[in-house]
Design goal:
single chain; two-stranded antiparallel sheet; globular
Length: about 240
Amino acid sequence: MQPNRIVTREEWLEARRTHLRNEKALTRLHDMVRAERRALPWVKVDKEYRFETRQGHKTLAGLFGGNSQLIVYHFMLGPDWEAGCSGCSFLADHMDGANLHLRHHDVSLVAVSRAPLAKIEAYRQRMGWQFDWASSFGSDFNYDYHVSFTPEQLAAGDVFYNYTLTSRGHDELHGISVFCRDESGAVFHTYSSYARGGDLLIGAHNYLDLTPKGRNERSTMDWMRRHDEYEAEPKTPSCCD
């Protein structure tokens, strides 16, 4: 690592004040984007999706629990996978801490994967996570929200992901979808985000972004492992790479 320019305290303060102006501008831009997101139109969800959970069968409305807002993390764990995506696992390591507070602020947070519930539960227990995680196996849910793709779709070429046609080559991809339930029980889709849209949920990245070396990676998250694999063999490429 090559050191940055070495200066006096007074020179550092002047440079820091200049950077602070940009940080404040970015904060104001974030505020504008968040307000724009909250003002997006909604789409009513009429399809009756079915999920398997630790508490039994649930519909999409059932995943809300007692809250009116639901955040679904589309976790990459396919029916024939032996372990969850390492990138999704990295993000999931941040979910339980946030969920301690979200559940008290009218928000339910649930991961959803296409793997059968038994496979989900085995991996959840390995990782030590507490958040709710439902199986959409046998449902159209993942396909309708553009995070799972059929062999026919993949064979045809580009798939629709992150609001564009792209040749990702994976049958499972990650994303976030948000839903709201009104007083009558009707469910509405309010927002979905894909690809790097999940980055803002990864607290470790925000810590790294404060440091001189930053994320210190050659490709996206190439340094990161599942949290129980850091002392094991060198990292293999993530399915998200």
